Amino acid sequence: MSGNHKRLPYTLFWFCVALIGATAVAGIALRRGESINSMWLVVAALCVYALGYRFYSAFIAAKVLVLDAGRATPAERFNDGRDFMPTHKWVVFGHHFAAIAGPGPLIGPTLAAQFGYLPGTLWILIGAVLGGCVQDFVTLFFSVRRDGRSLGQMAKDELGPIGGGAAMLGVMMIMIILIAVLGLVVVNAMKHSPWATATVAATIPIAVLMGCYLHHLRPGRVLEATLIGVSLLIGAVLGGGWIDENPVIRGWFDYDAPQLAVMVILYGFAAAVLPVWLLLAPRDYLSTFMKLGTIAALAIAIVVLRPELKMPALTQFIDGSGPIFGGKLFPFVFITIACGAISGFHALISSGTTPKLLANEQDARFIGYGAMMMESFVAIMAMIAASVLEPGVYFAINSPAGIVGAEAADAVAKISGWGFPVGVEQMQTLAQTMGESTLFARTGGAPSLAVGMASLFAQVFGAHLLAAWYHFAIMFEALFILTTLDAGTRVARFMLQDILGNFKPALGKSGSYPSIMFTSALVVGAWGYFLYMGTIDPLGGINSLWPLFGIANQMLAAIALCVGTTILVKSGKLKYAWVTALPLTWLIIITSSAAWEKLFSADLRVGFLAHAADLSGKLAAGELGADMAVKAPHLIFNDYLNAGLTSVFMLITWLLVGDTLRVIYCVITGKNYPRSSESAHIPSRLVEAWVRD
C-alpha cells in the first residue's frame, strides 16, 4: 500500500500535466475569429515536451534501444584528446544544441506563418516529439554503437554499397542546397541596410581577433577572450547605428543583393580554407553565447508580456496562393518548417562529432532527444514573434516585389486587398524606427522575425533602443546562419575530399593545401551559384529555393530513418520498428508530394517546369522587359536545374527506401543480408562521478 501511496502524487502530477497540455492544444486548435494569447502556445509546448521526454523517450531508451550505462563508448575506447574524448554531458548538450540550432527553427516558422499560426504550431509540436527527437536520438545511439561512424558510412555498412553510395551522394547534394538558402537569407537581411551589413561584417574581424588572442597572445585565457568578444559584438551593433547616420561612411556598407552574394561567397571560401582556430572556432564560440542568451531573453519577453497573436489561426493562403511562397498547406507547411519539427541536417551532427564525445551511453537520450526538444521550443518562440506582428506588416516585409509591386503604394493596396490593412506611412514609420530606409520586400523571414523580436525586447528591456534591438536581432540571426554556412562548407569539403580521394589519392588528403583549395572552390562555387541566382530572381529567390531546401532536408531525414529502421530490424527489434518507420512513412509521403508539385504543378509559382516553359514562351515572343530579358535565360536554366535536383533527391530517397525494404525482407525470410556493424560490447572503466552519473 505504501508504494501505491507514493506513486499517487506522481500519477496525479503527470495527469495534471496531460490535462493542461490537452486543454492548451485544444484551445489553440479550436479558437477562431478572436485573438489568442501567446501563453497558450508556450503552455502547450512545455506540456507536450514534458510528456514526450518523460514517457516516449523513456520507452525508446528502455525498450527499443536498451541503453547500457556499463558499456564503453567510442569516446572512452578511442580517447585521443582531439576527436574522441569523454566529455561531461552538459558540455556535450551545449555543443550538440549549438551545432543543430541553425536558422531553420527561426526562419521556417516565420515563413510558414503565411498559412496562419495553427498549422505550423501543431506540426512543430507533433513532428518534434514523434519524429525529430526520435531521429536525433536513434541516429546518435546507433552511431555510438558503431564507433562514431557517419550517417553515410552507416548506410553503406547496414544497407550495402548501393544504398550507401546513394546516401553519400544525397547528403553531399543536400548540403549544397542548404548552404545556398542560408546565404540567401543573410543577403536579404543585409541588402541596402548599412547598419545590418556593418554589424555582421564586424563579427568577422572580432572572431579573428579572438582566435589570435587565444592562440598566440593569451593561450587558455577563455574568460578574457569571451569578455572581449561579447563587448565588441555589442559595440558592433551600436557602431552600426553611427555608421548608418554618417552620410559618407554609410555608402561604404550599402549594397544590393548580388553584390552581397559575392561577398558571402568569398567569406565562405575563406572560412573553408583558413585554420579552424582562426575564424571558425571563435565564431562558433561567440555565436553559442549569442544563441543561448538571445533565446533566453526572447522567452523572458514572451512570458512577461504575454502578447496577443495578431495573425489569424488560418489564412486564405492555405489554398496555395500565398505571396511569400507558392503551394498549398499540404504538403508545403511540412517542408517549410523542417528544423523545428524534424531535420535531416541533425543526423549529420548526431553521427558526426557528438557520438565521439559521449562518456555514458545513457546520455544519448538527454542529448539526442532533449536538445531537439529545445530547438523545437525555439521554433515555437519564432512562430510567436512572427505572429504578434500586424498581418499587413508581416506580408509587406515578406512579400517579394514581383508579387505585390515594386512601388510602396502598389504593395499596400495589394496587401490591404487581401484583408490585411497596412499603410505606406505606417511602413515608413516602422522602417525609420528600426533604423532602415525601407522594410518592403525584405524576403527571407529574417527581417520580419527581427522586427517581431525587437518589438518584444523593446517593451521589456528598453523602448528607446528599438533600432538597436532590431539590428541586434539581425546580427543574432546572421550569426546563427553564418555559423552553419561556414561549418557546412567545411563539412562538405571533407565529404568531397573523401569522394575524390577514391579516384585521385592526393585529393583525399585533408591536410593538403592544394586539395583544400581545390575542393573548397568546388563546394563554394556550387552553393554560390544557387545563392547568386536567388538574388536576381524577381520572386525573391526564397519562393523557389526554400521549398527545395525543405524537400532536400526532409529527404535527408528519411535517409537517416531508413538506416535506423534497418538497424532495428537487424537487431531483432522488428516489433519496435514502427518507432522509426512511422515518421519515415510520413516523410516519404510529404517529400514525394512536394517534389511532385515542384516538378509538375501548373501553378507558375510552384512548378519549376511550368515556370520555365512560361518564361521561355514570353522571351521568344518578346513580351519581357529589357532587364528581365537579360535575366530570363539564367532563370530558365535555374528552373530546369532545380527540377533536375528535385528529381535526383526523390530518386535517391526511393532508392534508399527500396534498399531498406530489401534488407528487411532478407532478415525476415532468412536470406543473405549485410550483417550488423555494431561494435563488440566492452565494459566501461570510467569511474569518475561526472561521467558515470
UniProtKB/TrEMBL annotation:
Instruction: Say if the entry is tagged with keyword Repeat.
Output: no
Where does the CstA N-terminal domain start and stop, copy by copy? Answer: 37-594
Pfam families, from UniProt? CstA
Q: What residues form the membrane-spanning segments?
A: 12-30, 37-56, 122-144, 165-189, 195-215, 222-240, 260-280, 292-309, 329-349, 369-389, 469-492, 513-532, 544-569, 576-596, 648-668
Q: Where in the cell is it found?
A: Cell membrane
What InterPro entries does UniProt report for this protein, alphabetically? CstA (IPR051605), CstA_N (IPR003706)
Its topology with respect to the membrane? Answer: Multi-pass membrane protein
Which key words are in the record?
Answer: Cell membrane, Membrane, Transmembrane, Transmembrane helix, Transport
The family line of this record is: Belongs to the peptide transporter carbon starvation (CstA) (TC 2.A.114) family.
Which PANTHER family does the record cross-reference, listed alphabetically?
INNER MEMBRANE PEPTIDE TRANSPORTER, PYRUVATE_PROTON SYMPORTER BTST
Query: What name appears for this protein in its UniProt entry?
Result: Carbon starvation protein A
The scientific name of the source species is Methylomonas subterranea
